[in-house]
Design goal:
- The complex is a heterodimer.
- By secondary structure, chain A is of the alpha/beta class.
- Chain A has a single domain (3-235), classed as 3-Layer(aba) Sandwich (Rossmann fold), CATH 3.40.50.300.
- Chain A has helices at 43-50, 73-78, 96-104, 111-124, 140-153, 170-182, 197-203, 221-226, 228-235; strands spanning 3-14, 17-28, 32-36, 58-63, 66-67, 81-83, 158-162, 189-193, 206-211, 214-219.
- A six-stranded mixed sheet of chain A has the order 6-7-8-3-9-10, with helices on both faces. In chain A, strands 2-1-4-5 form a four-stranded antiparallel sheet, with helices on one face.
- Chain A is globular, with a radius of gyration of 18 Å.
- By secondary structure, chain B is mostly helical.
- Chain B has a domain at 27-162 and 170-259.
- Helices cover 72% and strands 1% of the residues of chain B.
- Chain B is built from 16 helices and two strands.
- Chain B starts with a helix and ends in a 6-residue tail after the last helix.
- Classes of the chains: A alpha/beta, B mainly alpha.
- At the A-B interface, helix 2, helix 3 and helix 4 of A face helix 9 and helix 10 of B.
């Protein structure tokens, strides 16, 4: 297996705040990697760096042998990295299928082919009964699934999921988890940020833990949850803080 | 036209309650409207109403051109008079000074306007909402002041006159009916173009950039390119309307063709009719142009300014009670009748 994505000493600061500092890891082709960390750990910033929404101050982001640090988001999407947004960003004046069609258009030649492809993806994520509905009828959970559908419609090689489980019912969590778990088998590498820890711990073989902008753990779930740094990052060492997830 | 009458794509899935209007299809309503427009010209109407009719056609076309940037790409512009004026002046100067037929000159004017529009959107790439609107308004004002003072080219405040010698090559005609036909041609072309655009991937790209630029970027869409192309296209088509306007009135002055009032008019018609729809700008133009012309001719002399008060009142009522414009109101009516109107 070869590394699809390599983060090499990536960092970015906002003024005096080092949001992400010297992060190094690599993800193999076909892996499903969980990325966790307390609120404000820098997970979303790291995603924005990978997706081109932010340009790193230092380090290289190598995707498929090419440094993509500083590429614009639409370039990053075109070379095969899809992302979802933590707060869903649907096209509000369009129907559900049209929302997904726009992603499908990246690879499909015609509008009608894009529509067919979008309908397929909507079926996959369980939104088939909302194809022609306006997005305003979708609940939070369904909007999250729409985000997943838009990402998958791009036919990505790497997909960055950002809290796609928040607001979902337990049965929805189960269905979406099964979908995510099936992606590596279809050649789609997955990095997955999630606060619903039981979903991610049971699905991912490898977990990365970010705290205060730094990578503090990298390993199988069982090992990571016992890691002293991770426990103290989540629970605090001296005084009790509120636990996440 | 027959290719557009058919649905451009079939929609999978059943008809749920909250169905979106499908884009890219031509409804019976639109065909009836077109037939009525042609009928008016064929059957003939009193000469005194011809002005209102042909102006409605011209404004309809211009409103559609504005709508490509303002309605589809979400780039609300209060400066389209700049493109209108550039088109009008380019074709007129070329025909009066260089003897070039306006049939050719209008395309050159359109290209020049497209360049202005493209540069405007690149320079204002980071501006959104009211800030973008103000920059379009300022652009039009700058161009107006330049035109006023560059007297050797534009004739300055005295304006430019086109010799009223009728000939096809100089696009000057004796009968208003011919002009009406010309304006109707413009309107229909704009309408067909809009329908083709909204069913194409570029139309979808514009909708995406309008609704959420971050999401569009994540889908591989270059938002800056889409915005620039939309503005350039809208400017191009507006300039064509400007040239037609010049050929009808045979007189141009900067205070009128670059005026703020004109810019507002371009934005108002689609807003009243229905932003981001093809039929909306046409409905807006067909409702508002006769209203403002009639109010002006009947009330303009007796009580100065009263026609503007009534006009403003109507605009406010429509904006308040039909936020989606007349097109949305008609759609709701059609939906209530069980979709019979579509």
């Amino acid at each position: 297996m070869t590394a699809l994505l390599k983060m090499e000493g990536v960092g970015i600061s906002f003024g005096a705040l080092r949001a992400v500092h010297d992060v190094t890891f690599s993800v193999e082709q076909g892996e499903l990697v969980g990325l966790i960390g307390p609120n404000g750990a820098g997970k979303s910033t790291l995603y924005n760096l990978m997706a081109g929404a932010l340009r790193p101050d230092s380090g290289r982001i190598v995707f498929d042998g090419r440094n993509i640090a500083g590429l614009k988001p639409h370039h990053v999407a075109r070379i095969g990295i899809a992302r979802t947004f933590q707060i869903p960003k649907p096209y509000r004046q369009m129907s559900v299928v049209e929302n997904v069609m726009l992603s499908a258009m990246l690879n499909e030649r015609s509008v009608s082919k894009s529509r067919e492809r979008a309908a397929e993806v909507l079926f996959e994520v369980g939104l088939e009964s909302y194809v022609d509905s306006p997005v305003s009828v979708l609940t939070t959970g369904l909007l999250k699934r729409l985000e997943v559908a838009r990402a998958l419609a791009l036919r990505p090689r790497l997909v960055l999921f950002d809290e796609i489980m928040a607001g979902l019912t337990p049965s929805e969590v189960k269905a979406v988890t099964a979908l995510v778990a099936s992606l590596p088998g279809r050649g789609i590498t997955v990095i997955w940020v999630e606060h619903v820890l039981y979903a991610i711990m049971n699905t991912a073989r490898r977990i990365l833990v970010l705290n205060r902008g730094e990578l503090i753990a990298d390993g199988p779930p069982q090992q990571v949850v016992r890691d002293r740094n991770v426990v103290s990052a989540y629970l605090g060492e001296e005084e009790p803080a509120d636990a996440q997830g | 036209m027959s290719t557009i009458v058919k649905a451009r794509y079939s929609s999978p899935g059943g008809a749920s309650l909250a169905r979106m209007p499908k884009s890219g299809t031509l409804s019976y309503f639109e065909i009836a409207l077109l037939a009525a427009c042609v009928g008016v010209l064929v059957l003939g109407i009193p000469e005194s109403f011809m002005d209102v009719v042909l102006l409605s056609f011209l404004w309809g076309g211009l409103a559609l051109a504005w709508n490509i940037a303002g309605g589809y790409a979400g780039m609300i512009s209060f400066g389209h008079a700049a493109f209108f004026g550039v088109g009008a002046y380019t074709s007129t100067i070329l025909s009066v000074d260089a003897g070039l037929s306006p049939w050719i000159g209008m395309w050159l004017g359109a290209i020049l306007a497209a360049l202005v529009g493209g540069v405007l959107s690149l320079v204002c790439a980071r501006l959104r909402g009211p800030f973008f609107i103000l920059s379009t308004l300022a652009t039009a004002e700058v161009i107006r002041i330049c035109a006023l003072n560059w007297a050797s080219l534009t004739g300055g405040p005295e304006g430019l006159a086109i010799p009223p010698v009728a000939s096809l090559a100089s696009m000057v005609f004796d009968s208003k009916q011919t002009y009406a036909l010309l304006m109707l041609g413009y309107l229909v072309l704009m309408y067909v173009f809009t329908k083709v655009l909204e069913a194409s991937r570029y139309g979808f790209y514009m909708f995406a950039v309008r609704d959420d630029e971050d999401a569009a970027g994540a889908a591989g869409i270059n938002a800056l390119f889409v915005r620039t192309a939309a503005m350039a296209l809208s400017a191009f088509l507006t300039a064509i309307g400007g040239s037609l306007f010049a050929q009808y009135f045979l007189y141009l002055d900067p205070t009128h063709v670059f005026s703020l009032e004109l810019s507002f008019q371009f934005a108002l018609l689609p807003a009243l009719g229905g932003l981001g729809t093809a039929i909306g700008p046409v409905l807006g133009a067909f409702a508002i142009t006769p209203l403002s012309e009639l109010l002006r001719s009947y009330l303009g002399d007796s009580v100065a300014g009263l026609h503007l008060v009534i006009y403003g009142g109507v605009v406010i009522v429509v904006m308040l009670y039909f936020p989606g414009g007349m097109a949305a109101a008609l759609n709701r009516l059609a939906a209530r009748k069980g979709g019979k109107g579509k």
